[in-house]
Amino acid sequence: MLALGIRYLTGYAVATDPSDRTRAEWPPHPGRVFMALADAYFETGEDVRERQALEWLEALPSPLVTASDADARRLVTHYVPVNDRSIAGKAFLQSAPAIARIKQPRTFPRVRPVDDTVWFIWPDADPPEAVRDALESLCRKVVRVGHSSSLVQVWVTQEIQGIVPRWIPEDDAPEIRMRVASPGTLAMLRERYNAAAIETFFELDARIRSSRGKDQKEAKAAFREAFGREWRRGIAPPERLRPVLGLWQGYRRVEREEDSPPHGTVFDPTLTVLRLEPTDEAFGGRLDLTTTLRLTNVLRAALMNRATELGLDPVPEIITGHYPDGQPLDRPHAAFIPLAFVGHEHAGGHLLGLALVLPRSAYWPGHAVERRQVLTALARIQTLKLGRLGVWRLVPEVRESPAYNLTPEAWTGGRHGARVWGTVTPIVLDRHPKAESRREYYEEVAAVIRQSCERIGLPSPLSVTTGPVSPHLGVPASREFPRLQRKDGSEQRHTHATIVFPEPVVGPVLLGAGRYRGYGLCRPLREGGAS
């Protein structure tokens, strides 16, 4: 048995699907991985043993593939100076200031896999020791599969305990098709790489430029014989063609029992997103996360007013959060959350929008009728009057490519969820800790947060780490957020936290006493560090 493991070091795979330039290729095709190995071979001296290993590998049957699902990222068009056109322009290359190239639109489709490691498995392959050693050498040289930003670690193994193939070759009724290598692929790549002709061109070009008289005439004659044309200044070198693999293999997904879906909360992951835009009466140009409480209170009041204008009497409990007699609901109701620019190295924590979060239908007896009523009332809110913060416009976010922090998956973890979550607004503690020592205090706070998780339908966390600072870049410290007040006028304590669950959970994750007013909002964290 032989297997190649590929780990995407950035957590993203960047490669264009050859059948659709607007989509990312996923799973990565076996042929693309072979080309990455071949590229390492061509660029590092063309070792004879590595060539023999690649020729052995290309003769193997199509491999089994293990690759998780992946979430497609927003497609962005970049305008970059390119090397595949010889037309001069005004955009000077940073690495060569004397060379100018016109800027052309380029897209780099990418996906974020749930599992950053992919396996290609040949169950019946038994490589000779020399072949295995050469493959290991090649794998150590591979730094990318696909675009230059798609950084990888590649290795060879003959033991894959616990790794189950997800895609197997299928010719009769395939679900997808992937490019694969075949005997002769390396020779074809060498021909398209065109290294010998290009090296000969530059050697003769340099010889012609540096010589005179008889030597120059001999060099020009050699050039004419090699390339079938006369040498002249500015002549273009032979073309290096893009590699093209013409052999496609059908694959089907391995039939297996469906994995149980990840845990969700009592809240529906389908968020209603509203973009915030300043009007001429907006002051300061931006709102930051510390204005959350002000915004959510105003939005809730505006929603109740619009419901009344629609003739809804009484206003649905799902909006008010109370029974007709004024008692608090004992089931989940509408929540309002801030959507801020966080989790990026340049993030400043300013608000991009707000979102309405509704309960799942299982926790909402009047779901069938009241959902339409709530959304109809929400659609009638066009502006928010925020006093000294001015007037802000609310615009439904329906663009094809919104900012990532204005997409529901940024706050829910997508359909696969996440294990690690961090607060964007602090969690308001349901009860006041009474512990005397610092250690016991933090243990009690962690216990309160665990209960908050269980209250919204989540499993008890493996760990809860609390403190004044959020794990997300751009989020203000907890002390900068106004505190919620109890009915007696006293203030409730709040804290930032990082929460690790035993398995992935799907959000939105809203915790604590302020969860319906924008506090206690958590966002997925990439495991192993801050976002």
Shape: elongated
The average pLDDT is 86
Using DSSP, what is the number of strands?
A: 27
What can be said about the biggest beta sheet?
6 strands, mixed
Low-confidence stretches: none
Ends distance: 38 Å
Count of separate DSSP helical elements: 11
User: Which percent range fits the helix content?
Assistant: 25-40%
Gyration radius (Cα, Å) is: 30 Å
Counted up, domains total 4
Structural class: alpha+beta
Strand content: 25-35%
How do the helices and strands line up, and which of them pair or pack?
Layout: E1 2-8, E2 13-14, E3 16-17, E4 20-24, H1 30-43, H2 48-58, E5 64-66, E6 70-72, E7 77-81, E8 91-93, E9 96-101, E10 103-107, E11 110-113, E12 117-122, H3 129-141, E13 152-157, E14 167-169, E15 176-179, H4 185-193, H5 195-210, H6 213-227, E16 248-253, E17 263-264, E18 272-282, H7 292-309, H8 317-320, E19 335-340, E20 351-357, H9 367-379, E21 383-385, E22 390-396, H10 409-412, E23 418-423, E24 427-428, H11 438-455, E25 463-467, E26 494-506, E27 522-524
Parallel strand pairs: 17-26
Antiparallel strand pairs: 1-12, 1-13, 2-11, 3-4, 5-12, 6-11, 7-10, 8-9, 14-16, 15-16, 18-20, 18-22, 19-20, 21-22, 23-26, 23-27, 24-26, 25-26
Helix pairs in contact: 1-2, 2-3, 5-6, 7-9
